[in-house]
Specification:
The complex is a heterodimer of chains A (about 100) and B (about 140).
Chain A: H1 2-13, H2 22-26, H3 28-44, E1 49-53, E2 56-61, H4 64-75, E3 81-84, E4 92-93
Antiparallel strand pairs in A: 1-2, 1-3
Chain B: E1 3-7, H1 11-14, E2 17-23, H2 26-34, E3 43-49, E4 57-59, H3 62-65, E5 72-77, E6 84-95, E7 99-108, E8 117-119, H4 121-124, E9 128-132, E10 137-141
Parallel strand pairs in B: 3-8, 4-7
Antiparallel strand pairs in B: 1-10, 2-3, 2-6, 4-8, 5-6, 6-7, 9-10
Classes of the chains: A alpha+beta (about 100), B mainly beta (about 140).
C-alpha cells in the first residue's frame, strides 16, 4: 500500500489527472508524517483516526468526525490531515463515469 | 424521520437529482463567528443520488468558494483511473425540507455533466432511499 500511495502522489503531482497539484502539495508534510509513522501507528492505533498538522501527530481518535472537530478546535480553519490507521487502504470506488478523472 | 421527496419529469432519463446546498461545517462556522468573520453563503448545486459512488463528491472549486481547506486525502478508483488522490473536505449538506447533515466529501471535476455533485453511499448509509420509477419520484429519509 505504501508503494501504491507513493505512485498515486506522483501521478497527482504531475497533473496527469488534470487536477491542480496544490491539493496534495498542501498536505505533503502530513502525508509524509503518516507514512513514516504508519508501522508504529498500526501497533498502537489500529482502526483509529489520526490527526496530523504541520507534520506533527496531534492524536488518535475513535471516529473521523471526532478527529476533524478536534482539528478545527486546536488549529482553526486550516489544512490538516485526518486518516484512518488500517493495514491496507481501500480506495473509494466510483462505478459511473460522472467524474472527470 | 426527516425526509424529502423529489419529483423528476423523466426519472429514467435524468436520474435521481436533488438540489442540495453545500455549507461550511458547524465547527468552521463557530470559528468564523467567534472571530467576527462572515460565514460564506451556501453553494447550491444539482446532485445525483448515486449508489455506484462509495463517497459523496462536490464539484471542484466549491470548497474554495466556501473558504474550506482539506482535512484529508483519499485514493479513488473510477472506470478510467485507479489510485488517484483526492482532497477531502468537511461540509454541511442541506437538502430540501431543511434536512441537514454533515459529511466528509471529495472534490473532483464534473465538467460537462448536468450535475455538480454526487450523493454517495456514505450519506446513503444513514438513510432509506425509495426509488419509485413508474411515478418519477424518489424519497430519501434519514
Amino acid at each position: 500500500m505504501r508503494v501504491h500511495l507513493a505512485r498515486a502522489v506522483v501521478a497527482y503531482d504531475e497533473g496527469s489527472t488534470g487536477r491542480p497539484p496544490t491539493l496534495v502539495e498542501t498536505l505533503k508534510d502530513e502525508l509524509r508524517t503518516f507514512e513514516s509513522r504508519r508501522d508504529e501507528l498500526l501497533g498502537t492505533s489500529l482502526g483509529k483516526w489520526v490527526l496530523i498538522h504541520d507534520g506533527e501527530l496531534a492524536g488518535a481518535f475513535e471516529s473521523q468526525a471526532d478527529a476533524i472537530n478536534i482539528g478545527y478546535q486546536r488549529f482553526g480553519n486550516v489544512p490538516f490531515l485526518v486518516k484512518q490507521v488500517v493495514p491496507v487502504e481501500v480506495p473509494q470506488d466510483y462505478v459511473s463515469n460522472h467524474l472527470g478523472i | 424521520m426527516p425526509s424529502f421527496t423529489v419529483a423528476v419529469p423523466d426519472l429514467r432519463a435524468i436520474g435521481p437529482i436533488v438540489e442540495v446546498r453545500i455549507a461550511v461545517p458547524q465547527a468552521v462556522e463557530a470559528i468564523l463567528v467567534s472571530g467576527g468573520q462572515p460565514v460564506p453563503s451556501p453553494v447550491s448545486m444539482a446532485a445525483m443520488i448515486d449508489t455506484g459512488a462509495s463517497g459523496t463528491v462536490i464539484q471542484a472549486g466549491v470548497a474554495a468558494r466556501l473558504g474550506l481547506h482539506p482535512v484529508g486525502v483519499v485514493s479513488i478508483s473510477t472506470p478510467s483511473s485507479t489510485g488517484v488522490l483526492c482532497a477531502q473536505y468537511a461540509v454541511r449538506l442541506i437538502f430540501p425540507n431543511n434536512v441537514v447533515g454533515e459529511a466528509v466529501v471529495i472534490e473532483a471535476p464534473l465538467a460537462g455533466q448536468h450535475i455538480q455533485g454526487l450523493i454517495g453511499r456514505d450519506v446513503l448509509s444513514q438513510a432509506v432511499l425509495v426509488y419509485i420509477g413508474y411515478t418519477n419520484q424518489f424519497t430519501v429519509s434519514f
